[in-house]
Every structure is written in C-alpha cells, then in structure tokens.
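Bug #77: duplicate submission created two jobs. Keeping one. Sequence:
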Amino acid sequence: MVLDKVKTDRPSSPLTLVTLVALVVNTLGYAAEFMWLGFDREISIIVGLLTSVTLLVATRWRWTPILGALLAGGILLGNPFLAINLSLPITSGFFLAAVTQVISGLVVVVAGLGATVPNYRKRY
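Kept job's structure:
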C-alpha cells in the first residue's frame, strides 16, 4: 500500500504538534461561522482546505508544516471580512470567531515555518 511507504519512524517535533493543534483550532474557528451564516460556499471551501491540510500535517511528512503555514497565511491575508468581523461588538459571535481565526492563523504560520526548518536539517 502507498501509505506504508510514506510513514515515518521519526516522532513529530514539538512545533509540528503546535502547528497541528493550531490548524484544528483554525478550522473550528472558520466552521463556527456556519452557526450564524448557515451553509456558505466560501466558508465550506475554506473548512475543507484546512481539514485536508490538517490531515496532511498529521501524516508527519516533513514538508507538510510549510503547507499549513502557507494556507493559513493566505487565508488570513485574503479574508476581506476579517476587519469587519473584528470591528463588531465583543458579544458578537463573528468577533469571537475572527479573534480565534487571527490568533490560530498566526500560530500556524510561525510554528509551521519553525517546524519545517528542523525537518530538513541533517541528523548526525
């Protein structure tokens, strides 16, 4: 089977685990908008992409944390409603979802970049 060949015996680095947890929180932050918007095509695409990348990072391939960082950073920078949602009152569900998205997105970017560098260093 193909997956038997790609499994690694090396344990996940702490930054890879932080990336994985932050990706899960980021996915849940975007999925929380379903409660207020109902089914939304754009949100479901974002949730689907984040779920796929989260599963890829969980496979422990050494290049996947950078993929998570690129996706989370791209979504964070390309979200036109983020500033609007952050300007809503603190009691709004959109505000809480936006804060979750920003914090977890930044953690994914920093931890994903930090996890990729040690994955490509030579082990002596």
